[in-house]
Amino acid sequence: MVRCSNNLVGILNIVTFLISIPIIAGGVWLSRQANTECERFLEKPIIALGVFILLVSLAGIIGSCFRVSWLLWVYLLVMFLLILLLFCFTIFAFVVTNKGAGEVISGKGYKEYRFGDYSNWLQKRVDNHWSRIHSCLQDSKICQSLIEGSNTKADDFFKKHLSALQSGCCKPSNDCNFEYVSPTNWTRTPSSSLDNPDCTAWSNDPKILCYGCQSCKAGLLDNLKSDWKRVAVLNIIFLVFLIVVYSIGCCAFRNNREDNAWKRYP
Fold first, then answer.
1. Which of 102, 120, 184, 227 is most buried, by CB atoms within 10 Å?
2. How many Å apart are CA 217 and CA 182, to the nearest integer?
3. Structural domain of residue 71, as residue ranges?
4. Number of structural domains, the chain?
């Protein structure tokens, strides 16, 4: 007699199996179409994720639908480890993104970002990989809209709501007190300050700007903080789903053992 829990596990894993195919295809496509180092960096994790989902789904399908108990046991073990890993990552994500926020500047529509305000763990990770991140930020052309807005008046620019990356990477720090010419063109004046190292790192060259500034790193961390918090919330939802599937899988495993015992002792 076919049990409901076995059918549910089989159906759920058929769905995830079908989902894994476009994920793998996307990774393969990216490996062939990638033009930048950032895109190439993503291809292997995407393919690995797709293959992992595919293999786990196959184990769930075969184990539940064909009553292969040992394979269903492997499936449940992987599911348990995945639940544990996601739980730990969710807690970790909330902890490391708890520190840091943009500083509101009087009379400005944008905020200023300080690298030292954020989690030490995140700071170290960004510092260690900054050369690659720096290249990715330049390739992404986050400052392009400001470069194209060269006719923007100072009052209009100061009212703009810039993203964290645009504020940190595309203009000099407010501490520098540079004179505004255009969104990406600023000049030093006798009243300008160079106490902040970012002031000497700034360049009007569109390829340099403030990509080497601490404020640019801080803008990236603020972006990461927002993204990680969203991911953590989604993880909670996904964890609930995985726990439900795991519970159904445990019922299917118990059914397999009972059926095997019934066949062994007629």
1. 184
2. 23
3. 1-99+224-263
4. 2
